[in-house]
Amino acid sequence: MNLYAKLQQREAQQKPLRIGLIGAGKFAAMYLAQLPRTPGVHLLAIADLAPAKARENLKKVGWDPLRMAAASIDEALKNKCTHISDDWQALVSHPALDIVIEATGNPLVAVEHILAALRHGKHVVNVTVEADAYCGPMLARKALEAGLVYSLAYGDQPAIICDLVDWARAAGFPVVAAGRGHKWLPHYAQSTPETVWGYYGLTPEQAVLGGLNPKMFNSFLDGSKPAIEASAVCNATGLTPSPTGLAFPACAIDALPNLMRPREEGGLLHHKGQVEVVSSLERDGTVIPYDIRFGVWVVFEGETEYIRRCFSEYGVQTDATGRYACMYKRWHLIGLEVGISVAAVGLRGEATGCATGWRADAVANAKRDLKAGEILDGEGGYTVVGRLMPAEASLAQGCLPLGLAHGWKLLRPVAAGQALKWGDVALDANLPAVKLRREMERSFGLQQRSAA
For 426, phi and psi rounded to 5 degrees? Predict the structure, then answer.
């Protein structure tokens, strides 16, 4: 509740949190737009594959060129400005740095960046949730072993869902379900970068003006990103998926308490403590007037008659029985809110969402019939789409995580709708991301069998 006051103290003491940013694309640019307005924080360095483009993005969000004129990190430290280069290794290894923000959006290299940052004693805020979805539990473990903080990025929906779940539990409410909104119709699962803008509701011209990546936005539309984010939420909160994955039921905000309750009580949930994503469209395409397409929600339970009477007295929206209620944020501000994570990690040593176990997995399913010899193009592309599964089922079936389904050649055909398996692709087993995922499967697989 007092992060701003603590940031002001750091500013007054001239002891700012020193930040390094890897990746200066759209998400990072939103954070950079807020950074000059935030006390107690010094962005010491940016590492990006295209430094000139990073500078261009900074100019677009209003940065003074003098703020990014440092020839080295040491000069940036001395002159209170920012050094920009393509050398991420120099960034993560610099002794003055406190926190690394990983914002490349590339799940393969993100793991390498995060592991290196932890080895050099840096806290990490991970914007690349795709990496968290397939090996977040191991990244969290590595950070814990090093006495460091590994955190999901506030502003992105998973961290905000974690915040709502934590709020409900800290107030004494059992969480029945939590999740996010989405614009969804079943045929969106076959969408490609060529069809995304028409489905999404933007013109190609608007997309170009906003600097929007069609493949990235298609990963939201086709259900891949919701599966990834739901996986991260499950692993951080203890919520679990339905055995059949996400259902994307059409649901208005006021209907959440009725719909997000167990089936035996008239709802749609497979079980209490479930993650789900609700659609802002009826199945015939009709727009729901009071939707939560861009927001997040939590449904919780009033266990006693007294608590349920309090719900009624204070006008809380509940289900027909008065037992189930919800809280929500109708919008999220993406990169504009990442400063919350930076402050929480740097000032309190607390993550804004962090895996505590392996409970769910976002796996790669064939978007169409795939032939041997084809090259997978990852989430939002033409070949695969994400599906949420319980971790035990993914492990037992040897499923290929969606975050690793990019750049590999298929060794055998896979029919549309089928999950890809590790044995279906020719992969490099020595990549840090692959090695860490395999280590997680061995470690958590043994833990799950021991618990059973």
Answer: -95, 100
